[in-house]
Amino acid sequence: MLWFILRRCGSAVIVMFLGSVLIFLGIRALPGDPATVMAGQEASPEVVEAIRQEFGLDKPLPAQYVDYIGQTLTGNLGRSTQDQLPVIDIIAERLPVTLELSALAMLVAIVIGVGAGIVAAVRRGKVADYVATGFGLAGLSVPHFWLGLLAILLFAVTWRVLPASGYVPFTQDPAQNLQRMILPALVLGTGFAAILMRQTRSAMLGALSADYVRTARSKGLSEAKVVGAHALRNSLTTVVTVLGLQLGALISGAVVTEQIFVIPGFGKLTVDAVLTRNYPVIQAVVLITVIGYVVVNLLVDIAYAFLNPRIRLSGGSHD
Amino acid sequence: MSLLEITDLTVGFDTEDGLVQAVRDISLTLDEGEILALCGESGCGKSVTAMSVPRLLPPDTTRLSGSVKLDGRELTTLPEPDMRHVRGKDVSVVFQEPMTSLNPSFSVGYQITEVLRRHEGLSRRAAGDRALELLELVGIPAAARRMKEYPHQLSGGMRQRVMIAIAVACSPRVLIADEPTTALDVTIQAGVLDVFRDLRDRLGTAIILITHDLGVVADIADRAVVMYAGRAVEQATVTELFANPRHPYTLGLMKALPTAAVGGRLAEIPGMVPSPLSDPDECAFHDRCPRVQVDCRVSRPPLVRQAEGHLAACFHPGGQS
Amino acid sequence: MTEQAVTAGRAARRRRLWRRFRRRPMPMAGLVLVVGFVLLALAGPLVTGDPAAQDYLATLAPPSPAHLMGTDDLGRDAFARIAHGAQVSLQAGVLSTLLAMAVGIPIGLVAGFYRRWLDPIVMRLVDVTLAFPFLVFAVGLAAIIGPSLKGVVLALGFSQLPAVIRITRGEVLAVREMDYVAAAVADGAGDGHIIFRYVLPNCASPLIVQATVAIPAAIIGESTLSFLGLGVQPPTASWGVMLTTAQQYLSDAPWLAIWPGLMIALATLGFNLLGDGLRDVLDPRSGR
């Protein structure tokens, strides 16, 4: 198990390294002087020169990369060209908002998706199955941002039961915070619930027809135990894998959802940065997203190994 | 009164092509400590017959009539919650595929203690001690270490022994073994059969052994029912059956046995089993039967007494030798 | 098996698959939706007129006989813009998928054929590609080349690349194990012959199924990016751009938010139903 984790960590580090190289080269592929790009169009020559010195932009490329990584590892991600604030501070402020949204959406997705998937598999061919499957197809076909617009149209414009947009920090007023987060989380979570539901259903159908489930029934176990312990335990690996594969989509979804509900999170920061050509911020958010994505995938891999005794005990790889 | 009495059992399944009759009018009895073999080709209905006892057939599509009585208690109409107290406790099953019948995500110990805690109400520790005894009973060396292992770490023979340990954990009255040795190497088969014999001798468990292998029948069973196309065609004690097979199908099965092969060639029974969608009036075996006559094509021979304790469904049974 | 037998067998298989497919209601409904979407994209703009024509007397007008789907804030006909938006969606979906196939199939072939030294490099690069969530890559591209349909197609194509490479490589590895291919190799058939005669035909089914997954993802991806302002730019009519406008007039003109979203959902649903059906027919192993 330890060997397995170490190997996964090793390949994660390699992927992060290659990712950082790609980002580094991407910024340098921009037309014009990189120091000017990083400082912003309106920056004074002194500011441009300071940035050139700080990131060693007059040195050859490999040396520049070393400087860049060195600065990044010590937390210096440069300054935003909009307001000259350190990028690291901006991200520290925005990231928790997005994490909260994503966690809530994930919760919605798991509760609805796994629940509906299990029910659909157990009640295969019955009304509940058709309802769940139909929901799955619809959820897969409706884009997040349209669902968000419809939700605002219904809950905020027509029924006026929930605020349409805005954000209140959790630490300031938890009730207000949740009231404003519930709609975005539902919107973001529903699409993933649909994907999760389809995968859970098919994994559960497979498990329920497996020989070991027949064995569990022959032991006289209750149906709750047969489904909830024996079948579900073997479907969990699929669920975890799907969750891992959907992380990228969750990040994309969070960006869009924040834009619609005007939530000042990481995603909105990203879009605003692109629209204002705020390159230090773009470079940092892309890097952090890639790192976060690789790390969470690593955790998913480890969770997967933990759920599967073949990997947990052998220390081998599963591919 | 016998321990288990199956009377006029008929089982069908709803499919897209209509009702498929898997078992028709089977009646049989099983006494305490008896090993009864159900034999025939795959698809003859032997497994369906046996799985009707613990009601392990898909409830939505199964159409069942007739009676199954355990100790005089009717099982076919028993409410499902009560039935769950019968399964694993009074009637338990060893399945054909040891490779897939154990849950890959749970340790061997968990899978054995689970059934003990369910039916015997044992504590975790007491169940663990009992599971250890069971593993030793079915001949698993280093049982304490095996308890913590997972199915993928065990060989096929070991897994089948674990399956047997689970099945006998609560000292069942009836143990159903569905082709328990088919998936195993020949060398391991004998060991597993010894475990069954030993259990019968020590615990008095009655065993229904489902097999297509008459060699296994001769080795371990007391009595045998030969099935063909969903019906019982012959039923006798094993000594009587092998000495005086009456039904041409039974005779054909015996000729297909490797030990019976003369001149190194196995005899095959020519032809195909009729479709279970139709219910012909004639003898189901007439197309393949070497002794077929006009009457076999017109009506179906009833299962009638040929000798003491020996039944066969044939108009032209083989003579006494 | 001779080559003629292989070809004849494939033709017979296609006919059998089509018969099996035709009998199912859901995939057929999907096919109808997809055909409708393609027709709207190709023929729609010809009948609806100019999507940029402004009618200052009817801004934010509800649906009426003159404007079937109403008009937007500049008095432009929503139906004309929907039809032109369909064209943009179709372009994004088809072009990005073609791009991914054009780049991915050769890479997959080469990786599968020269396993020893190229395969590990290619597969590691695929891993790195997977570490970039689609939107992050799109953001990076938009930052570098500026927001445009070109950037959208590149980003979408790039994000499909790993799947195409994996499928092609997997088929190469599987096909090389087959007896009649091994026989052809033993007969001295060249790599090119093996690739065009055996490998590519075998890749067709999984790649078609992949396309039915990728095209709807691209349709949603294009509209998402355009909605965020990172894709197709106004005044070009794209379903995503239309929804950006609609968001500003949600309480005054809710119909503007309904039509584009509904079109995205129907087009995507069509491809999803079609894909599910094709997967069932082409690949019996993966039950749903």
UniProtKB/TrEMBL annotation, chain A:
Keyword terms, alphabetized: Cell membrane, Membrane, Transmembrane, Transmembrane helix, Transport
Transmembrane in keyword set: yes
A Pfam family hit: BPD_transp_1_N
Residue intervals passing through the bilayer: 12-30, 103-122, 134-158, 178-197, 239-261, 281-307
Gene Ontology MF term list: dipeptide transmembrane transporter activity
InterPro entries per record: BPD_transp_1_N, MetI-like, MetI-like_sf
Domain of life per record: Bacteria
Subcellular location: Cell membrane
Membrane topology summary: Multi-pass membrane protein
Segments forming domain ABC transmembrane type-1: 95-300
GO CC annotation terms, alphabetical: plasma membrane
Annotated protein name in UniProt: ABC transporter permease
Annotated organism of origin: Nonomuraea deserti
UniProtKB/TrEMBL annotation, chain B:
Keywords: ATP-binding, Cell membrane, Membrane, Nucleotide-binding, Transport
Protein name (Swiss-Prot/TrEMBL): ABC transporter ATP-binding protein
SMART domains in the record: AAA (SM00382)
Family according to the record: Belongs to the ABC transporter superfamily.
Recorded GO MF terms: ATP binding; ATP hydrolysis activity
Bilayer topology: Peripheral membrane protein
GO annotation, biological process: peptide transport
One Pfam match: ABC_tran
ABC transporter domain mapped to chain residues: 4-254
InterPro entries given in the database record: AAA+_ATPase, ABC_Ni/Peptide_Import, ABC_transporter-like_ATP-bd, ABC_transporter-like_CS, Oligopep_ABC_C, P-loop_NTPase
Any Gene Ontology CC annotation: plasma membrane
NCBIfam families: oligo_HPY
Compartment(s) of residence: Cell membrane
UniProt source species: Nonomuraea deserti
Record-linked PROSITE patterns: ABC_TRANSPORTER_1, ABC_TRANSPORTER_2
From TrEMBL, chain C:
InterPro entries, sorted: BP-dependent_transpt_permease, MetI-like, MetI-like_sf, OppC_N
Example GO biological process: transmembrane transport
Tagged with keyword Transcription regulation: no
Name the record gives this protein: ABC transporter permease
Transmembrane segments: 94-113, 125-145, 253-275
Keywords: Cell membrane, Membrane, Transmembrane, Transmembrane helix, Transport
Family according to the record: Belongs to the binding-protein-dependent transport system permease family.
Gene3D superfamilies documented for this protein: MetI-like (1.10.3720.10)
Pfam families the UniProt entry points to: BPD_transp_1 (PF00528), OppC_N (PF12911)
The organism of origin for this protein: Nonomuraea deserti
Subcellular location per the Swiss-Prot or TrEMBL entry: Cell membrane
PANTHER family, per the entry: D,D-DIPEPTIDE TRANSPORT SYSTEM PERMEASE PROTEIN DDPC-RELATED, OLIGOPEPTIDE TRANSPORT SYSTEM PERMEASE PROTEIN APPC
A GO-annotated cellular component: plasma membrane
Domain ABC transmembrane type-1 as annotated: residue spans: 86-275
Topology within the bilayer: Multi-pass membrane protein
